[in-house]
Specification:
The chain is α/β, with parallel strands linked by helices. It is about 45% helix and about 10% strand.
């Protein structure tokens, strides 16, 4: 989004620029803000402004713990940042819910490398001692580490793990491909996508577009002058409907899940690395813990639509 604002400024002021330079500078600045800790300090100083407090999150986590499920948290953030955020979201006793808490994990390298080892942290999130970690205690925060050591200390079975992450590559790709974990993606933008999909205007636009494309497909080889004129008007109307449906989600970028009829690159990667996706973890709160989600059948170009 930062790149977009800079490009918009350059375009309005008619300033010449190299797109790759803008991308590199903005990317470097965002990375520096994260790594320097400035972003975290601002969020910790005013969590109410930056963090949405989900009213059902604590209840859902307590439901899992009461049922005997083991919870773990793997974050690239510092222990202090995690503690401040979780106190705001869940309460002072948030650590009691988690069997394993890992800070500064350095994902995705956490899943790929085995050299880094866990370190003890005190209750304030500061480095405690040089003694190696030989066991993981409930409610304690451990720094760094790697997936190989985590599995070695917990003896968890990959077939019994459901792992939620909000980044397709940093969180989900490696544990899905290399470890066989069941993965779920958290995508906050999904709520807006669903809202738009259920509006009457969008449904009318999509239905009209579908019928119009069927007409164009069936009569595209008509040769009369009247038919050719009608086809051209259909094509123009189709283009207008396509643009209108895309702008329903975002007037600049469209949907993050589709590019017109086709799945977006993000959507294809999501299907590859996540078994389930949702806007927030607590959406599962009202489901029984033994509930099974069955995926919808995805149509292929050669298949009839009788089952849709």
């Amino acid at each position: 989004m930062s790149c977009f604002f800079f490009v918009q400024l350059f375009e309005r002021q008619k300033i010449k620029y190299q797109p790759i330079n803008v991308y590199q500078d903005v990317s470097s600045s965002v990375s520096r803000v994260h790594k320097s800790g400035l972003l975290g300090l601002n969020i910790m100083a005013n969590p109410e402004r930056h963090i949405y407090r989900d009213p059902h999150l604590a209840a859902f986590l307590n439901k899992l713990v009461t049922d005997g499920r083991k919870l773990f948290l793997i974050s690239n953030s510092s222990a202090a940042f995690i503690d401040r955020g979780m106190r705001f979201l869940i309460g002072e006793d948030w650590r009691e819910l988690f069997d394993v808490i890992i800070s500064r994990a350095n994902k995705p390298l956490f899943f790929q490398q085995s050299a880094n080892q866990f370190r003890h942290m005190d209750d304030r999130g500061h480095f405690k001692d040089w003694e190696g970690v030989r066991s993981l205690s409930r409610g304690h925060i451990y720094d760094g580490g790697c997936l190989e050591q985590l599995i070695s200390l917990t003896h968890w079975n990959a077939q019994h793990i459901l792992y939620f992450g909000d980044h397709v590559y940093s969180d989900l790709a490696d544990v899905s491909n290399l470890q066989g974990w069941t993965t779920a993606a958290v995508i906050p933008e999904l709520e807006h996508e669903i809202m738009v999909n259920n509006t009457l205007d969008f449904r009318r636009c999509s239905t009209k577009l579908r019928h119009l494309e069927e007409l164009i497909n069936n009569y595209q080889h008509a040769s009369s002058t009247e038919a050719r004129t009608l086809l051209r008007s259909w094509q123009l109307e189709r283009n207008e409907l396509r643009v209108s449906s895309k702008r329903s989600f975002n007037k600049y970028f469209g949907s993050i899940f589709r590019s017109f009829h086709n799945p977006s690159y993000f959507s294809r990667r999501l299907a590859q690395y996540a078994v389930l996706y949702t806007s927030k973890v607590s959406n599962l709160y009202r489901y029984p813990l033994d509930h099974t989600f069955y995926p919808k059948r995805t149509g292929l170009p050669h298949e009839a639509a009788w089952w849709q």
